[in-house]
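Much of our argument rests on the idea that a fold can be written as discrete symbols. Part of our work consisted of pairing the sequence of a single chain with a tokenised description of its backbone. No coordinates are needed to read the tokens, only the vocabulary itself. The record that follows shows the chain in one-letter code together with its fold in token form.
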Amino acid sequence: MNDVATALGRLGELAIEVPSWAYGNSGTRFKVFGTPGTPRTVQEKLADAAKVHELTGLAPTVALHIPWDKVDDYAALKEYAAGLGVGLGTINSNTFQDDEYKFGSLTSSNEAVRRRAIEHHLDCIEIMHATGSKDLKIWLADGTNYPGQDDMRGRQDRLAESLQEIYAALGDEQRLVLEYKFFEPAFYHTDVPDWGTSYAQTLALGEKAFVCLDTGHHAPGTNIEFIVMQLLRLGKLGSFDFNSRFYADDDLIVGAADPFQLFRIMHEVIRGGGYGKDSGVALMLDQCHNLEEKIPGQIRSVLNVQEMTARALLVDTAALTEAQRAGDVLAANAVFNDAFYTDVRPVLAEWRESRGLPADPLAAFKASGYQKKINEDRVGGQQAGWGA
């Protein structure tokens, strides 16, 4: 394996963006569960996110969702976040909750609906100017439920035209990242169902358009690290939405279902030049904490990414290359296994302490009294959640 000290020397490059909506109430399609202390405003979401960064040193930026996080003064919101020690990151658009988008948004055959969706994205770009955000992330619920319901090729053409207008409005330092999803809520076909469709659309747009890879948005058995490798190879991987799945888009804590998969993904990220602050690849969480407490859930998530990144940094790439060239299958696989099965938790605790962070962030959060305080302070008002 690589020297542990050398590997951990690169951990300082790790930055994970947390989503504002992870701190609100969430649940299943049957029930959304309320919990004490849930934020009622975007400012309270930012305060919770700042606590995660304070205890882990891993989450310096917070992604916003528009209109869920809509405010009158985004410059003031940026200043407020800075006062908490965090920045505002990706701006996520929303064209999946209004009645007008029942049959599609950017792909709709209704010109008025399509115009409304485009204007929403142009508004998001204006918000980016005020917040200093770099990325506009687009996920579309667009698709059909039945064969013959709509013209699939026509929808792709309309999507391309809509994206071109949005792309043209980007600033010089801004990017568009197009997410894809295998299925849901459209069940016959989804307009952006896979990385190939997202790649084709962003390639046509230009050098400021990239693919967003959500780790829960694939068919069972998909080799996600292969997609990571390919998009890095093509220079089109813009960002991740990290989560875990057992069945579909479960949005569980990253690394919970298959930590070995997360390790393999991070190996490809590091190998392909996607790791580090200047890599151009944003590592973001996209999770819904249905049963677990929100802040500890986010702490656990960023620690899982850190742990698997540390293990991936331990891969002895020289030994791996030698075994691969020699056709030694078992030796090559052993290099992976040796790194993955290394318990890096004790040295990560030491690494955190050396930087003035608590050795055990989850224990530190429990001891801080923060949850008790927000439970008492955040009484009344409307708790944030899906759609708020």
The longest helix spans residues 111-131.
